[in-house]
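Input sequence (79 aa), recorded before submission:
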Amino acid sequence: MNGYSANYYTYIWSLVIAKDMWSAFGGTNLLGSPTTMKYRRQVLAQGGSAPSAELVHNFLGRDYSTKAFEDWLNEGVAK
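Predicted structure, token format:
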């Protein structure tokens, strides 16, 4: 992976966390579910008042994981 800038790695790590957070929604109505309101309260409303890892942990109820990202990658391989 020689030649990639730090921006690429930051993007991929952000995607790992985003896929994990996305998995918390479980395919529900994104605009009107209890999970949406939880995300709004525990992540968006907090702004920069806490480190992002803490906001993610509070939303997920655990530290983030790479499992959802790995599952997403495997979906592309299976198609």
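Checked by second reader. The radius of gyration is 14 Å.
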